[in-house]
Model the fold of this input.
Amino acid sequence: MDPVTLLPIIVLVGAMFLLTRSAKKKQQQAAQMRDQVQPGTGIRTIGGMYAIVKEVHEDTVLLEVADGVHAVYAKNAVGAVLDDEEYQRIVSGGDRAIDTPVVPDDASSLTGDPVATDADAEKKLDLGKKSEAAEPDAGGESTDGRTEGEAGEK
Done:
């Protein structure tokens, strides 16, 4: 075969070799990281959940996802092993910016009242349209200058 026709084949085989080698290296690093998991270690799952490892088995780990709440996960679900400081900072909300506003659970911050009841909302919020022309004032004239019962052009 001509060396010019072999060159693309050699380049392609070389690229495939490098890609599979880096993928195998990443898999080995992930397996090594999962082997470091011990009870009491803070972890992040591949789904983004933070938990503490309670038990480690051959293919599974028992995680405490909240106080007294345990769940069994596959070891492959462990996305990252965190050191104690980082885990505590994340779960305690220490990574949140100081100026970040806290969103309330209700709409009281929108109305300005710290505690708004249903009765207050009914008094303040009137969605019904009242036609000023239909309500005559005390002198018998409506606000548009016509007297009661007088038809006008629109």
User: Anything to note?
Assistant: The first strand starts at residue 42 and ends at 45.
